[in-house]
Amino acid sequence: xxxxxxxxxxxxxxxxxxxxxxxxxxxxxxxxxxxxxxxxxxxxxxxxxxxxxxxxxxxxxxxxxxxxxxxxxxxxxxxxxxxxxxxxxxxxxxxxxxxxxxxxxxxxxxxxxxxxxxxxxxxxxxxxxxxxxxxxxxxxxxxxxxxxxxxxxxxxxxxxxxxxxxxxxxxxxxxxxxxxxxxxxxxxxxxxxxxxxxxxxxxxxxxxxxxxxxxxxxxxxxxxxxxxxxxxxxxxxxxxxxxxxxxxxxxxxxxxxxxxxxxxxxxxxxxxxxxxxxxxxxxxxxxxxxxxxxxxxxxxxxxxxxxxxxxxxxxxxxxxxxxxxxxxxxxxxxxxxxxxxxxxxxxxxxxxxxxxxxxxxxxxxxxxxxxxxxxxxxxxxxxxxxxxxxxxxxxxxxxxx
Length: 401
Prior knowledge:
Layout: H1 9-29, H2 31-56, H3 62-93, H4 95-117, H5 121-137, H6 139-169, H7 171-181, H8 187-226, H9 231-241, H10 248-263, H11 269-293, H12 301-335, H13 341-347, E1 354-357, E2 360-363, H14 367-370, H15 387-400
Antiparallel strand pairs: 1-2
Helix pairs in contact: 1-2, 2-3, 2-6, 2-12, 3-6, 8-9, 8-11, 8-12, 9-10, 10-11, 12-13
């Protein structure tokens, strides 16, 4: 006879926390193996509709459809890299102008420090020379670590298409494995869970791609209006870095400021760059995110920021990119397990997202008017008012009179 072991709350909480710590430790130790697999899984979910189209419409074999889908994906990535390399070549051709503008800005900074901090240019130059000596002493270590990280990136970029193809090829095999892993009475919940994971991950990735394109176009137009050099390249870089929620845009703004100063000796261009980035972020956070990203992936901002920081600490930039999809998958799983449902609610976001104004979806912040009220259930029975109680009450009232 099968007996279900019921643990008290503190034991369940301990087991869940230990499981989370163990999962984080395993991810940290095996990140070189797990990150390419997780990235490939995301891309396989994204390419699955293309494989289905080639199978159903063009009647291509499953193997050939998977190969063509991966090749198409690689060509798109190579096209983006080629376009960015063409833009970078224009920057390289202006190296003399960049050097001249940097020299002007450097002299202006030195003059500012001399007038306000009372540090002479000779002392400033001495500080710079001392810092350069320290940098040269660590140059060999820096070059070695850079080459090692570059080889790791090349290896990861080589493995991701291979893993993506294999995941697409053995999709049915993996589905049968999951079916054998769980008992038949749980298959309906398993199918629902996998369907929701696929919808959430696919909508999130597609939304990120659309958001990246929109942010790149808006930033490029804004930089062109204020006269920033290399506006197209900076717009594309801003859109790509915006794939890392909340944090990537800060790096993009800093890079845009530095790049804009290399194109002109006018310091006032910095204000224009900051204004453009703020306007684009307002449009992104208040229009694009609610419309195309947050429609399926409902994760609150607090958990998202913590997840991104933890992902960056465990896996670097790739970990930051994978943080939101992993949290979304965990939320889908938690919502369908009774003793983990509270954790799924913690990861989620019950704030009202948008309201429609003239066919435009805008953010809505009146949380107190729209949120469901919290109902606390108790085991105290409600009093029943019987006819006897009513009669006694009436008699007592008559006697009082």
